[in-house]
User: Fold Thioredoxin-like protein from Thiohalophilus thiocyanatoxydans.
Amino acid sequence: MKLQLLIAGQLPSCLETRDVWQSVCAQHGVGLEIIEVEDEHGQAMIDKLGIKSFPVLLADGKIRAVGRPDPQHAADILQNLLIS
Assistant:
């Protein structure tokens, strides 16, 4: 499974979300790619998926979570992704 987190620059909510997802993924031994909306790859993903809100967690190219989860909710989301 390929996890990607699309964040909007230095917005506090995006930075906090990045920290939550990085921590949860590290605890579960899962890789996480961080993508900035300002770079070409980020813009291409926004256009392809029609993303309007940030931050966004993608699993295998599909939107799986939007916004900033607390660590337990992020762990629950990741666990569900791992067993599905």
